[in-house]
Design a protein that fits this description.
It contains 6 helices and 8 strands. The chain is of the alpha+beta class. A 6-stranded mixed sheet has the order 1-4-5-3-6-7. Strands 2-8 form a two-stranded antiparallel sheet. β4 and β5 form a beta hairpin. α2 packs antiparallel against α4. It is globular.
């Protein structure tokens, strides 16, 4: 449905590959400040068959995390993106600790990391500065906006 609009904007349409969401309680019409922290990693797939097992392990491990709001993979061609959201900076750090071995496996041959970004409230990004520097990640503080969902 979005292909024509995406093409006119020079944008890629990533197809949802796998994942989950615990963000399913709508707060009605009340808009709340944005509080989620998100990680935005972009990869190039070098060996799709080898990447598949690691992607599945990422999803299974992430599903056990109390602070993970949503998690999953989207693809277009040989490009892979992980869409993931967390309750706060502490949950991001807990996630990275939980999936550290998966990151190592994915980058050991199946994929190449193109870039990684952390987005969230400025106070939460403070908790991520050292980790972001170690990963070469860019930090983006929320400027404005709202959310209408809470974790179930």
């Amino acid at each position: 449905k979005l292909r024509a609009i995406a093409d006119s904007l020079g944008a890629a349409c990533y197809a949802r590959d796998s994942g989950f969401s615990f963000m399913n309680v709508e707060n009605g019409h009340a808009a709340h400040p944005r509080s989620l922290c998100t990680i935005h990693p972009y990869f190039t797939i070098l060996d799709e068959a080898a990447a598949r097992d690691v992607m599945d392990e990422f999803v299974a491990r992430s599903k056990t995390e109390a602070g993970c709001v949503y998690y999953g993979w989207t693809k277009v061609g040989d490009k892979l993106f992980c869409h993931e959201g967390y309750t706060d900076g502490d949950a991001v750090l807990a996630h990275l600790g939980n999936v550290g071995s998966c990151i190592d496996k994915l980058l050991a041959g199946p994929c190449k990391l193109d870039r990684i970004e952390f987005h969230g409230p400025a106070a939460e990004l403070e908790k991520l500065k050292e980790t972001a520097a170690n990963l070469g990640a860019a930090l983006y503080a929320h400027d404005s906006g709202f959310q209408r969902y809470e974790m179930a």
